[in-house]
Amino acid sequence: MSTLAINKRATFDYETLEKFTAGIELTGHETKSMKLGHPNIVGAHAIIRDNEVFSVNIDIPSFQPLNAPSNYDPLRTRKLLLRRSEIKYLAGKLLSGLTLVPLKLYTDHGLVKVEIALARGRKKHDKRELIKKRESDREIRKFKK
């Protein structure tokens, strides 16, 4: 299992509650581009529409930019593959003000997978507390050595 992209910003902006693994529907040149390490998932999120889950704003540039299809959109909406029971569960949770955020893209036995998290947004003061805690932990580790 190799990691293709990590959304570090999501762990700072959101408090993750539950994690799910989903497949992602891709075209051939998108898959090749992802396996070369070109995707960008910062600022992406997922939505549920008609009992299907879609990812929004996952940036996957073409494998060969000069040889890309003429109508190719790197930020297009892509379908995420989840079980029907998981989709119903997530739809119920999203009604209570939570968000679906992709945390990382990785390969599993040759297939590209997305780890999405059910998350709650952090307020500005929560982010400041997180930064203070991280700095104090760093200071403690520095003095222990």
Radius of gyration: 17 Å
**CATH hierarchy: architecture:** Beta Barrel
Report low-confidence residues grouped into runs of 5 or more: none
Q: Mind telling me the CATH superfamily name?
A: Small protein B
How many domains is the backbone divided into? 1
CATH topology: Small Protein B, Chain: A
Shape: globular
Describe this structure in words.
The chain has one domain (2-144): Small Protein B, Chain: A (Beta Barrel), CATH 2.40.280.10. With 145 residues, it is α+β, with helices and mostly antiparallel strands. Helices cover 32% and strands 35% of the residues.
Provide keyphrases for this structure.
single chain; alpha+beta; Small Protein B, Chain: A; 7-stranded antiparallel beta sheet; 32% helix
Structure at a glance:
With 145 residues, the protein is of the alpha+beta class. The protein has helices at residues 8-13, 28-35, 84-94, 124-144, and strands spanning 2-6, 14-24, 45-49, 52-56, 78-81, 99-108, 111-121. It contains four helices and seven strands, in the order βαβαβββαββα.
What is the topology?
Layout: E1 2-6, H1 8-13, E2 14-24, H2 28-35, E3 45-49, E4 52-56, E5 78-81, H3 84-94, E6 99-108, E7 111-121, H4 124-144
Antiparallel strand pairs: 1-6, 2-5, 2-7, 3-4, 4-5, 6-7
